[in-house]
Design goal:
This protein is of the alpha/beta class and about 230 residues long. It is built from 3 helices and 11 strands; from the N terminus they run ββαβαβββαβββββ. A 6-stranded mixed sheet has the order 5-6-7-8-10-9, covered by helices on one side.
């Protein structure tokens, strides 16, 4: 059986920006790999719009969503509440969804991109990145023996592997990359890793893992379809 997803990310919408996805759907499901907006109402409107077009929308919260936040936990809970009000939207924030033998494991991951940081934000984001790295490691380890899970797709807002910068490393490269969690994939269940934050479209395979992103940079903008055989 094959499952298809439309991948989008990094919409970077302001309160006055419009986003219309009518006529661009190619799959039953959609993955949003972070950075919709720092405005809660815009996040709500975007997820609601996508929910009317897809059978399921899977969304990880990006660093942009916290840009104006003084309380990360409060912002996370506010976005999670939005998800509970839209029946076919799942917020992949330390949350695993199992869909027909495929486990979607998601978290922010916290971008190394300097544009999201200022002062204390950088320190708080680094602590959150450590938490996310631990979460991925533990979750992937547990899923190795889960009988209902045949494949795993990881979804993060941040770039998970140093090589995916293609030599253009961020200014504050803290040398912590989420791909360390792949050491836990002893049953080789991870075949796809969808991510955001990269400036260019990426579709490349490294050590048998296909890394994919599709940022909202080019106009016209189209979904990138990802298929997984279960």
């Amino acid at each position: 059986m094959e499952i298809g997803f439309d991948v989008i990310s990094d919409l970077n919408l302001g309160p006055d920006d419009s986003f219309n996805w009518e006529g661009k759907v190619t799959s039953l499901y959609c993955i949003v790999a972070g950075n919709i907006s720092s405005d809660l109402r815009t996040i709500w409107q975007t997820l609601l719009h996508l929910s009317r077009l897809y059978q399921g929308v899977f969304y990880v919260i990006g660093s942009l969503e916290y840009k104006d936040s003084d309380d990360f936990e409060a912002t996370t809970k506010a976005i999670q509440r939005l998800g509970t009000k839209i029946h076919n939207v799942a917020i992949l924030e330390h949350h695993v969804v199992i869909l027909d033998g495929l486990a979607l494991v998601g978290c922010n991951g916290w971008s190394n991109d300097q544009k999201y940081f200022d002062g204390s934000f950088e320190f708080r984001a680094l602590n959150k990145k450590l938490e996310d790295a631990k979460y991925l490691k533990n979750s992937i380890s547990k899923l190795q023996t889960h009988l209902d899970v045949k494949k795993i797709m990881v979804v993060t807002s941040t770039i998970p592997k140093k090589e995916l910068y293609f030599g253009e490393l961020p200014d504050n490269d803290d040398e912590l990359y989420l791909d360390l969690c792949l050491d836990e994939d002893t049953e080789v269940k991870i075949t796809k890793w969808v991510f955001g934050t990269h400036k260019k479209i990426v579709d490349t395979t490294i050590d048998n893992v296909n890394y994919i992103n599709n940022p909202y940079t080019a106009k016209p903008y189209w979904a990138k379809r990802v298929n997984i055989e279960i």
